[in-house]
Amino acid sequence: MKLKSIHHIAIIASDYNKSKSFYTQILGLHILKETYRQERDSYKLDLALNGQYIIELFSFPKYASRATRPEATGLRHLAFVVDNVDEAVQELRSKHIPVEDVRVDKITGKKFTFFFDPDHLPLELYES
Predict the structure, then answer these.
(1) What is the mean predicted confidence (pLDDT) over 52-72?
(2) Confidence (pLDDT) at 63
(3) Which is more confidently placed, 65 or 25?
(4) Which residue numbers delimit the VOC domain (predicted)?
(5) How many domains does the chain divide into?
(6) What's the domain range around 37?
(7) Which of 85, 110, 119 is nearest to 99 (CA)?
(8) SS3 for the chain, per residue?
(9) What is the model's pTM?
(10) Do residues 117 and 123 touch, judged by C-beta distance below 8 A?
(11) Residue 69 forms part of a structural domain
């Protein structure tokens, strides 16, 4: 088997409309398709970044909370590449999104920082 790429990342939202707004209005992801699945009482929102399908955002009437801190096993965070971390931080803060202080990766020398989606999923911005 030879893996070619990541197809998508699935995220379950506790408040679908809040998360939909966050990922589209705050982060600027593009909606490819939104489907309501009546048999599951669930929405599935397909989101793209620069034309590439990357996230499935789900709603479910029953869900389990995710442990985020201290470090929990499983998915640690999602990372997005930006040209300028400092500018991205300013933009997020102007939209009232709390962002951690910018740090420098000791291995690569690149700037990075973290913030959280509405369900406290850690998201990283990493400078290209």
Answers:
(1) 81
(2) 78
(3) 25
(4) 5-128
(5) 2
(6) 1-62
(7) 85
(8) CCCCCCCCEEEEECCHHHHHHHHHHHCCCEEEEEEEEHHHCEEEEEEEECCEEEEEEEECCCCCCCCCCCCCCCCCCEEEEECCHHHHHHHHHHCCCCECCCEECCCCCCEEEEEECCCCCEEEEEEC
(9) 0.85
(10) yes
(11) no
